[in-house]
Q: What sequence folds into this?
C-alpha cells in the first residue's frame, strides 16, 4: 500500500509541540504509516484524553501514532517495534525531539504483551496497528485484555485491513467509533468495567 507511505521517507507530526516537524523513517517492508487524514481523525477522537495519558504503541513502525501523542503532551509512551532498524530510527527521532518521556522496545510485541506489566502502571491509550494479513490483531487484543495492560476507561485504537471481518472484541471493550479509509478500517474502543 505504497500510497500511504510518503515517498520521501518521512513522517510529519500534525499538531502539538512538534507541529509540522518532519522526521526520517526507514523504508522497510510492510511499513505503512497511518495516513495524515486518518491520524487527524484519530487525534480528534482522542483530543480530550491525550494530555497526561500513558500510551502504549504495540506495532510502532514509523512511530507516527506515538510521536503524535507525545507531541500533544501524553505523559509517557512505550513504543514497541520488531524491526531493529525501525526501532533504532525511532530512538534517534526521540533524541532529535529531545523527548525523554518515551521508551523504545525493540522486539516482538506479542512476547512483550505475554509478559504482563512489570509495574502497576497500566496504559490509558493503546495503539494497535499491526502489519496487515498476518493475523496479529485478534491475538494482540486478547493479550492486552488477559494481562491487565489497560487502565480503567482506557482507549484502544485498532487499525486493520478492511477485508478483516472476524474481529474478536474482548469482554468489557465497547466500540465508540469506526471508519473506513480506502483499504483500511479503524476503530476506537474503550475498556469499561461493569459498575
A:
Amino acid at each position: 500500500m505504497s500510497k500511504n507511505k510518503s515517498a520521501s521517507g518521512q513522517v510529519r507530526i500534525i499538531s502539538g509541540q512538534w507541529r509540522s516537524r518532519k522526521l526520517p523513517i526507514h523504508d522497510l517492508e510492510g511499513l505503512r504509516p497511518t495516513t495524515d487524514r486518518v491520524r487527524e481523525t484519530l487525534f480528534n477522537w482522542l483530543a480530550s484524553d491525550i494530555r497526561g495519558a500513558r500510551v502504549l504503541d504495540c506495532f510502532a513502525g514509523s512511530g507516527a501514532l506515538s510521536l503524535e501523542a507525545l507531541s500533544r503532551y501524553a505523559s509517557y509512551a512505550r513504543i514497541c517495534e520488531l524491526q531493529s532498524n525501525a526501532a533504532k530510527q525511532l530512538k534517534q527521532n526521540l533524541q532529535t525531539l529531545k523527548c525523554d518521556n518515551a521508551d523504545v522496545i525493540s522486539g516482538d510485541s506479542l512476547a512483550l504483551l505475554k509478559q504482563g506489566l512489570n509495574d502497576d502502571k497500566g496504559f490509558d491509550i493503546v495503539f494497535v496497528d499491526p502489519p496487515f494479513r498476518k493475523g496479529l490483531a485478534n491475538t494482540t487484543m486478547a493479550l492486552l485484555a488477559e494481562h491487565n495492560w489497560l487502565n480503567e476507561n482506557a482507549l484502544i485504537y485498532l487499525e486493520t485491513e478492511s477485508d478483516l471481518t472476524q474481529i474478536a472484541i474482548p469482554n468489557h471493550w465497547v466500540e465508540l467509533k469506526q471508519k473506513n479509509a480506502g483499504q483500511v478500517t479503524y476503530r476506537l474502543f474503550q475498556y469499561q468495567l461493569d459498575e
